[in-house]
């Protein structure tokens, strides 16, 4: 059995980024850049008006001659002598001979004459060439998450394709004779399968979509055959249930026969003690507890960390906040615990119903509260560690 910190360290140590590939920019959202993106242009590529107004060639007088108009997209150059002005619009190119833009609310126009009504400084309201990024400089560094804003920025530079770190292909396996699909007739001794649907949804919520799901009965040969096939076909295999040491828990035995390198098995924590992490070749294997709340807790703490690291997010870490507990909680046993909770910014409520088999509490939780080994009781007002959950 390993500690939480040792388990986390093993995942960080053994999670290697997948290969990279070029993709169209409009298909790159939620991926991480695998290399620096160098700007092919200055942005903006010309001196640009920051607002609707008038471009001026400044002189000592408040009066200016209005000699033309420049709209966004115009390419012609207008030459302004000192005391000349042109009507200009946001985003339009500022003539080389203009040295300020005054907003339209601060002038009075009478036919071709313009009077400014406030002081204006040289270069005011002009976006200089390369203000955002200069030609040949790094526009976005390796490891940047391609958010909609990042996609928009790269598109504004004329970039159509980017080199991203791939995300893994993922297989989810649910084990157990007792499991039946939702919608089927519920017979005595059977329960509806929830882990596959839950984990599939959890993966989608953090932008992993290349997923297939599988079910296997409590049969050793069937378990061995399925895991062997999946180890060859997928880059991550997530197995729920069958990882403990019961008479019908065959996952651990199958992984050993398939010569998967065990990096840890069992973590001193609650819920999720029977957690397995291993690797074979290109494939990462997680064996999660069969109890749904334990499986989901382990996903958020460990599996997601591994997924982020191998997908190019080298700066990933669990987000932790401090908050004041609004209620009491007495811990049973000496293991550290992850407790379902509702986080409200400055305060957090530890919820009732912390059983690893119960999802109803998890369904309304938006965070986990971490209780260290040495803490036995949380009093009202105590400051605790909070891990927000993805939404």
TrEMBL record:
Pfam family, one: MoCF_biosynth
Protein keywords: Magnesium, Metal-binding, Molybdenum, Molybdenum cofactor biosynthesis, Transferase
The reaction(s) this protein catalyses: adenylyl-molybdopterin + molybdate = Mo-molybdopterin + AMP + H(+)
Pathway(s) this gene product operates in, as recorded in its UniProt entry: Cofactor biosynthesis; molybdopterin biosynthesis
EC number: 2.10.1.1
PANTHER family on file: GEPHYRIN, MOLYBDOPTERIN BIOSYNTHESIS PROTEIN
InterPro entries the UniProt entry points to: MoaB/Mog-like_dom_sf (IPR036425), MoaB/Mog_dom (IPR001453), MoeA-like (IPR038987), MoeA_C_domain_IV (IPR005111), MoeA_C_domain_IV_sf (IPR036688), MoeA_linker/N (IPR005110), MoeA_linker/N_sf (IPR036135)
Function according to Swiss-Prot or TrEMBL: Catalyzes the insertion of molybdate into adenylated molybdopterin with the concomitant release of AMP.
Lineage, highest ranks first: Bacteria, Pseudomonadati, Bacteroidota, Flavobacteriia, Flavobacteriales
SMART domains attached to this UniProt entry: MoCF_biosynth
Organism: Zhouia spongiae
Family listed: Belongs to the MoeA family.
Protein name as it appears in the record: Molybdopterin molybdenumtransferase
């Amino acid at each position: 059995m390993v500690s939480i910190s040792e388990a986390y360290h093993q995942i960080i140590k053994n999670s290697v980024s997948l290969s990279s590939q070029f993709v169209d920019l409009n298909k790159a959202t939620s991926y991480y850049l695998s290399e620096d993106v160098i700007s092919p242009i200055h942005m903006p590529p010309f001196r640009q008006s920051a607002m609707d107004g008038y471009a001026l060639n400044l002189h000592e007088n408040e009066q200016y001659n209005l000699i033309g108009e420049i709209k966004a997209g115009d390419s012609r150059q207008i030459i302004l002598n000192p005391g000349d002005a042109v009507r200009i619009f946001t985003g339009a190119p500022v003539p080389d001979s203009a040295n300020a833009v005054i907003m339209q609310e601060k002038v009075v126009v009478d036919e071709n004459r313009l009077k400014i009504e406030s002081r204006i400084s040289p270069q005011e309201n002009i976006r200089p060439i390369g203000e955002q990024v200069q030609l040949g400089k790094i526009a976005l560094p390796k490891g940047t998450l391609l958010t909609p804003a990042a996609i928009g920025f790269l598109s504004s530079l004329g970039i159509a394709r980017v080199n991203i770190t791939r995300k893994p292909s993922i297989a989810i396996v649910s084990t157990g004779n007792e499991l039946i699909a939702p919608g089927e007739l519920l017979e005595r001794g059977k329960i509806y399968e929830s882990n596959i649907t839950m984990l599939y949804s959890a993966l989608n919520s953090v932008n992993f979509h290349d997923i297939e799901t599988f079910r296997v009965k409590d049969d050793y040969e069937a378990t061995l055959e399925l895991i062997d096939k999946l180890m060859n076909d997928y880059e991550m295999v997530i197995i729920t249930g069958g990882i403990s040491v019961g008479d019908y828990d065959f996952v651990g035995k199958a992984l050993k026969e398939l010569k998967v390198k065990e990096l840890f098995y069992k973590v001193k924590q609650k819920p999720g003690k029977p957690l397995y992490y291993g690797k074979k070749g290109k494939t990462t294997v997680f064996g999660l507890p069969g109890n749904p709340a334990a499986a989901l807790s382990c996903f958020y703490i460990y599996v997601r960390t591994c997924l982020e690291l191998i997908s190019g997010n080298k700066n990933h870490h669990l987000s932790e906040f401090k908050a004041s507990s609004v209620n009491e909680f007495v811990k049973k046993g000496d293991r550290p615990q992850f407790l379902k909770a509702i986080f409200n910014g400055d305060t957090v409520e530890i919820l009732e119903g912390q059983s690893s088999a119960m999802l109803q509490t998890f369904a309304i939780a938006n965070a986990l509260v971490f209780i260290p080994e040495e803490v036995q009781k949380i009093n009202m007002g105590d400051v605790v560690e909070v891990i927000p959950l993805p939404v």
